[in-house]
Amino acid sequence: LPDNASYRRYADLGRGAAVWNVVAAPPYAIELKTWCFPVTGCVGYRGFYDEAAARAEAATVAAQGFEVQVYPVPAYSTLGWLNWAGGDPLLNTFIGYPEGELARLLFHELAHQVVYVQGDTMFNESFATAVERLGGARWLAREASDEARQAYADFDGRRRQFRELARRTREQLAAHYAASPGDAAAREAGKQRILSAFREDYARLRAGWTGDESRWRGYDAWVARANNAFFATQAAYDGLVPGFEALFESAGRDWPRFYDAVRALARLPREERHRRLKESTGG
Hints:
By secondary structure, the chain is mainly alpha-helical.
């Protein structure tokens, strides 16, 4: 990953999040609404430095018929464009994370400086998520204390359980929407059944978790407010990760070769690069 000015200085923003993201999806589709900007291209979210402004945008989008969510983001990448000015700083919003989580976040954000494709949120975020997982595992094995490794394993184990449950629910919702396009009542009833089952499954999963309760409250809130916007956001971060992990293996677990292979994919049309990543894992 880049060895540059980023994450060498500290900044206290005086607030609990770097930005608040607004995400939105149609009521019967797992598909993010996009916003378009000059540098980043079209992305499946809109970020605000002010929470009230984010919620005002969410209300506007909801009035257009979308399901919306607003969530805090601890860090974001300027894609290396501000390295001349000191780079992306270590922020008060994440500096207190446990070692493994801090390393994971930095690897994710630095990955955006390696490869970033305008207009393809799923490709960009899935790539960064793959780098954080692969790089995080390597860092923990080589650099972390036994205590840090155990703390990360405990937390990440719960996270993977939750993401798997959400993935299955997302796929059920997508299949249901595709199977009942013309019957509004049946489509809504089926949607609510799937969401109800999701919450029941989560409650059973949650009952088996031990440790600091505060670490799971974010998941509790996620489940309570779950809608298409949240599931579509998770798909953006997870959807192509298995393909990137398979690509890493095919590159001999060699990071420069892996990054070169990702850059080659980035030059392809969006549908083609997604197809190749999915085919690499039989998806």
